[in-house]
Design goal:
The complex is a heterodimer of chains A (118) and B (151). Chain A has 5 helices and 5 strands. By secondary structure, chain A is α/β, with parallel strands linked by helices. Chain A has one domain: Rossmann fold, CATH 3.40.50.2300. A 5-stranded parallel β-sheet of chain A has the order 2-1-3-4-5, sandwiched between helices. In chain A, helix 2 runs parallel beside helix 3. Chain A starts with a strand and ends with a helix. The relative contact order of chain A is 0.19. Chain B has one domain: CheC-like (Chemotaxis protein chec), CATH 3.40.1550.10. In chain B, helix 1 packs across helix 3. Chain B is globular. With 151 residues, chain B is an alpha+beta fold. In chain B, strands 1, 2, 3, 4, 5, 6, 7 and 8 form an 8-stranded antiparallel β-sheet that branches. In chain B, a hairpin with a 5-residue loop joins strand 7 and strand 8. The chains are: A alpha/beta (118), B alpha+beta (151). The interface between A and B is medium-sized, with 24 and 27 residues. Bound molecules: magnesium ion. Magnesium ion binds next to loops of chain A.
Chain lengths: 118, 151
């Protein structure tokens, strides 16, 4: 299983990497914004899962999500939002735009495990 | 400034510490910021816009910041560098974003984090009172400063 972590916070990616690593995932690639993530995704296919932040510079997570969902090449890539954006309207917008699940920061390792289905 | 807007940020701070740091900060009495302004070593600042304008900051003495971030990432962070700044910024981002859930009526947007490292005071929006909420915690004391103008 290959996972792409997309978050502008290096700290957050470090935490996610540790927690996902503890769940047995060994192939992890990273990007610091949506634009960079598009390139990392393209160059690392097949990617099974993207863990996606919302608020990032250059290209935000919702734009990345819509871009990826408009491309059939990536139809099997599971995308789970992992963001501090907590309002119901944001969750609805992300799910409507093709996110498979939604994790609100701050999360526990247990919540991450459950939402990722790992 | 409506004090009802402060509670979601306090609850978000407690949730952040519980989930990410396995710690339980205790909130002190909120006070209106007055001179002489408190000084901090590092602050993570998030701008708020939309149905209200202002900012929310999490403000630390250096020892507290290092202990907090070390706990958060699970490895010792011993210097005031990019790792520390990134982590303090992300804590502020988590607190601001999570608080929005209980402030949905304000339709707030949050900025990307800004972080100040060095001994400093913060200034809020002019003409808008800033509320300081002190916290004690096993990882060391810290404070939250909120300045929010609602129309
Ligand atoms: Mg972010």
């Amino acid at each position: 299983m290959k996972v792409l972590l997309v978050d502008d916070s290096v700290t957050m990616r470090r935490i996610q990497k540790t927690q996902i690593g503890n769940l047995g995932v060994t192939e992890i690639v990273e990007a610091g914004d949506g634009q960079e993530a598009l390139g990392v995704l393209k160059n690392n296919m097949p990617v099974d899962l993207v863990l996606l932040d919302w608020n990032m510079p250059i290209m935000d997570g919702i734009t990345f999500l819509k871009t990826v969902r408009a491309d059939a090449t990536y139809k099997d890539v599971k995308i789970v939002m992992c963001t501090s954006e907590s309002e119901k309207s944001r969750v609805v917008e992300a799910l409507k735009s093709g996110a498979n699940n939604y994790i609100v920061k701050p999360f526990t390792p247990e919540a991450l495990k459950e939402k990722l289905g790992l | 400034m409506n004090v009802a807007y402060i509670n979601p940020f306090i609850a978000a701070t407690v949730a952040c510490y519980k989930n990410m740091m396995d710690a339980e900060p205790t909130q002190g009495a909120p006070v209106i910021k007055r001179e002489p302004f408190p000084k901090y070593d590092i602050s993570g600042i998030i701008g708020l816009s939309g149905g209200a304008q202002g900012s929310i900051s999490l403000c630390y003495p250096m020892q507290s910041a290092l202990a907090t971030v070390s706990k958060m990432v699970g490895v010792p962070i011993t210097e005031a560098g990019v790792d520390l700044a990134d982590a303090i910024g992300e804590i502020a981002n988590i607190v601001a974003g999570f608080a929005k859930r209980d402030l949905a009526g304000l339709n707030l947007s949050i900025s990307l984090p800004n972080v100040i490292i060095s001994n400093h005071v913060l200034s809020g929006l002019s003409g808008v009172p800033t509320v300081i909420v002190p916290f004690t915690c096993s990882l060391g004391p810290f404070a939250m400063e909120i300045s929010l103008k609602t129309s």
